[in-house]
Amino acid sequence: MRIDAHHHFWNYNADEYAWLDGPMESLKRDFGPSHLKPLLDVAGINAVVSIEARQNEIETAYLLNHASQHDWIAGVVGFIPLESPTVRTSLERFTQNRHFRGVRKVLQGQPEGCMRGDEFNRGIAHLKHFNIAYDLLIFARQIPEAVELVDRHPQQVFVLDHLAKPRIEDGGYEPWAGDIRRLAERPNVFCKISGMVTEADWKTWSPSTLQPYFDATIDAFGPNRLMFGSDWPVSTVATEYGRWVDTVMTWTASLSEAEQERLWAATAIESYRIVPSPGLIPSPGIAGSTRGAAGLG
C-alpha cells in the first residue's frame, strides 16, 4: 500500500488564499478530488491524507465531507484554534468523525516565541487525550523552538512537514542539518518527505540537488519515522505529480522491503492512527513502480 500523507484541496477565492500570489498564479483555481484521483491511479498511490490550507474550521468540515465521499481519503489534518477556550469542544466535535486524524496551525513565519505561549501549549496538551497528531509547519530557523515545544509534550505525536523547509535554492544545508538531527532525537516526532521541490529552484532542480537533504533526513529519523507526501497542488509549480513519486522511489529503492513499507504507508498509518478503508487492499509489493509513461515528468 502507498499513502500520500500530504496534499491539499481547495475552492479558490482571493480573500482566503491571498498567499497564492506572484509565481503561484497557476494555483488560483479549484483543486478537488476529481483532479487528484487520476494522478494517484497512474502513480500507484492507494490513499491520501488531506491537510488544511486556510486556517479555519469551515475548511476542516469541508475536507471531512470529501473524506466521507471517497474511501481513498484516509484521513484529514484540519485546523482548530488551539488558543481558544473552546478548543476541547471543537476536538470533541471533530473527533467523532473517524477521518479527523490531526491538527495543524501554521507556525511558519510567526514571531519568535510563538511556540512558547501558554494558551497554545494548553491547546496542544488537549490533543493527546484524543489521540490526535499535530503537524509542525515551520521554517528551518524555527527548529530550535520546535525542539522546546516537543520537549514540553513528550507523549504527543508531532509530524514535521516538508523537512522544516530548508533553503535548498540557496544551498542552506547548515545549520538545518544539525538542527534536524536534534529534533529527530525526540522519538515522538515523525517527518514527511515533501515540499522539497518548492524550496529548490523550481525550474532547474534535479533529484541529485535534493538528495543531500533526503539523505540527512533519513540519517536523522531513519525510514521508520518518515512518510511520503506530495504537497500537491502546491508542488505543481515545480514538478508533475509523477516526477516527484519517481524521485522518492529512486531514493528509497535501496531500502529493505520492510523499510519501504514504513516510508510509503505504515509510518502514516501509525502516526495518524489511520484505519484504512476495507476497499483499500494493500498491494503485494511496493518496490517497483506501477506507473506507465503517461505519469513521467
Describe, in plain words, how this protein is organized in 3D:
The protein is globular. The chain is α/β, with parallel strands linked by helices and 297 residues long. It contains nine helices and eight strands. An eight-stranded parallel sheet has the order 1-2-3-4-5-6-7-8.
What features would you highlight for this structure?
12% strand, TIM Barrel, alpha/beta, 9 helices, 8-stranded parallel β-sheet
If you average the pLDDT, what whole number results?
A: 93
Total DSSP E strands = 8
Number of domains: 1
CATH topology: TIM Barrel
Q: Looking across the biggest beta sheet, what order are the strands in?
A: 1-2-3-4-5-6-7-8
List unreliable stretches of 5+ residues: 283-297
- Strand-residue proportion: 5-15%
End-to-end distance, in Å? 23 Å
Q: What does the radius of gyration come to?
A: 18 Å
- Under CATH, the homologous superfamily reads Metal-dependent hydrolases
CATH architecture: Alpha-Beta Barrel
Name of the top-level CATH class: Alpha Beta
**Helical residue percent?**
25-40%
Give the SSE order as H and E letters.
EHEHEHEHEHEHEHEHH
Describe the global form. Answer: globular
Structural class: alpha/beta
Largest sheet: 8 strands, parallel
Discrete helix count: 9
What is the strand and helix layout of this fold?
Elements lengths: L2 E5 L25 H11 L3 E5 L5 H13 L3 E6 L8 H8 L5 E5 L13 H12 L3 E4 L6 H10 L5 E3 L15 H9 L4 E5 L13 H15 L4 E3 L12 H12 L4 H16 L25
Parallel strand pairs: 1-2, 2-3, 3-4, 4-5, 5-6, 6-7, 7-8
